[in-house]
Amino acid sequence: MEEVIHQEQPKQQKKKTKWIIIAVAIVAILIAGIVSVQAFILTSAKEDYFLAEKNSIQQLQETFESRFQQEIAWKEHTDENAIESVTKITGQMNVPSMAGMGYDQIINNANITIESAMDKQENMSSVSISAGMAGIELNGIEATLDNNDLFVGLPFLDNIIQVNGDDLGRILQEIDPDTFTGEENIDFSTLYNENPFATEDFTYINEEYLMYLYDKLPDEAFESNSEDITVGDNSINAEKITFSLSEEEVQNILKGLFDKMAADEKLREILVNQTFYMDYANVEVANEEIAAFEEDFVSAMEDASANVDSIKLPDGFESIIWVHDDIIVKRELAATLEDAGATAAVRIDGTNAVTDNNQVLDYNFTVDDGNTEETMNINADLSQQDGSANDMITFSAQDASFTIESNQTEQNETDKSFEHIFSFSQQGTQLMSLHWVGEGTYEEDQMTVNHTLFAEDGAALNQDTLSISLSQEGSTISEVETPDAGQVKNLSDMSGEEITQYFETDVMQQFQLWMGNMMGGMGTGGF
Asked: Is the pLDDT of residue 453 over 80?
């Protein structure tokens, strides 16, 4: 019996540790969201601190948007209007050592064309795919979504198959009653929702939790004074704001937060909706599964609250920012966590040098467990002037680094050229780089973009040996066309037995005839 008890304790401790980690992660997300709070008035160091965080994020967002003004404008146009687009994909290969194998001829003569249309306002879309390779042309692969109906056409079918998402469960249950319950369905409308987080849910979390955390942070935890610092090549006078909490203060804030979350039914409802949102193929989740999820969440929050004292911060928490022109130009953050005898020191330090045409961010993220110290550096050198932008972002750790280089030039308000390079280096040697080169024209109701993709390894692989080209054309249309009703075979009008017979006879016979024609065509160069 003593042995059983001795073995059970580590399991319980492991379970508590797991829930504490989950809870701390939730808190980190909530604290990060405080920067979205709008109602700040410059009256205290506390308010200055979070306003600077908010302004710094907005400044980076505006920098990103300035690089992709035309693309963002076209995206906004597609959100409000019905759009038709045609994408053509071709390849080019020139490898002398593989010439005798025939791969180069296959790739050089292959093509894929994707024609699509979408109306996000009406929840309607369609796509048609055709391809050619080695003299064989493949056409007739198409699909259309009309609200909650899916229409599918295949090269070998005379009819276009229609199925309603709400009727899917009934069909599947009649075909295979041992596997399906009849409650399954597909909500195709979710595919058009790019932001599954409802505005009212965001508002609730903002008001109930972000503002809760903000209010619980004591004003005395923030101190402000003026300090001269050097950022980049410039010496500036900045507002230094120190945010510090003791271990006890952190524990008290977290305990109150966990208790609040454990008792909040509305929060559990939001989490359930978000957790099962992407499971659109089984929207009607069993009540038992939802109840189990909510029970686990409440248990996790209660365990986190009961064991909040195990979150050890012997040195407390301290974050220092230096603010100039309302944005953060320098940062230092440090905390040491102890759990079950293990210690981890976390440090973040960096600078953000901003001038009229340039911005250089240089940040280090360091974790030290007492045995090893790991540091990741992020360096972003961003510049923009006279319609040209040249940016380089590098992620590096130990002897490896990943770099994103982006060069863009705007010829006028509608035309631009660009080159994006993604490269990976190890121990100072570049191993591989992927190049994305193109030019585009974005007008009010249409766009044309040509892309070329190729890789370089510094040896045999380059643009001349292998590349992929994509051409895109988009234009505004009045509406998305739906299939001719005379061609449609609606599975919702058929029983499971009728559907099975239809596929085993009509569909299979048409497929076999099509395959026979295709195989015969391969011998003569077409079909």
From this structure: yes
Rg (CA), the chain: 30
Average pLDDT over residues 133-156: 88
Which residue from 30, 13, 32 is spatially nearest to 257, judged by alpha carbons? 30
Segment among 29-38, 241-250, 252-261, 397-406 with least mean pLDDT: 29-38
Question: Is 511 within the bounds of a domain?
Answer: yes
The SS3 call for residue 278 is coil
How do beta strands 488-490 and 160-164 pair?
parallel
Closest listed residue to residue 261, CA positions, set 36, 30, 437: 30
Give me the number of domains the chain comprises.
Answer: 1
Predicted confidence band at 323 (pLDDT cuts at 50, 70, 90)? very high
Average of per-residue pLDDT values in the chain: 84
Residue 50: HSE in the Cβ half-sphere, 13 Å Cα cutoff: 24
Q: How many CA atoms lie within 13 A of 513 on its CB side?
A: 10
Q: What is the C-alpha separation between 7 and 376, in angstroms, rounded? A: 38
In a domain, 505, yes or no: yes
| CA distances for 148 relative to 36, 145, 202, angstroms | 35, 7, 27
* Of 88-97, 315-324, 424-433, highest mean pLDDT: 315-324
* C-beta of residue 510 within 8 angstroms of C-beta of residue 158: yes
The tokens for 91 are 């390849």
- Terminus-to-terminus CA distance in the chain, angstroms? 77
Token pair in block for residue 486: 């005379």
What is the DSSP pairing of strand 466-476 with strand 83-93?
antiparallel
- Domain range spanning residue 501? 494-524
3-class state of residue 196 by DSSP:
coil
Residue 125 lies in a domain: no
What is the C-alpha to C-alpha distance for residues 45 and 383, in angstroms, rounded to an integer?
A: 32
In a domain, 504, yes or no: yes
Which DSSP string do the residues of 432-478 spell out, in sequence order? EEEEEEEEEEE-SSEEEEEEEEEEE-SSS-STTTEEEEEEEEEEE-S
Residues in the chain: 527
Contact, 347 vs 366, CB < 8 A? yes
Instruction: Give the pTM.
Output: 0.79
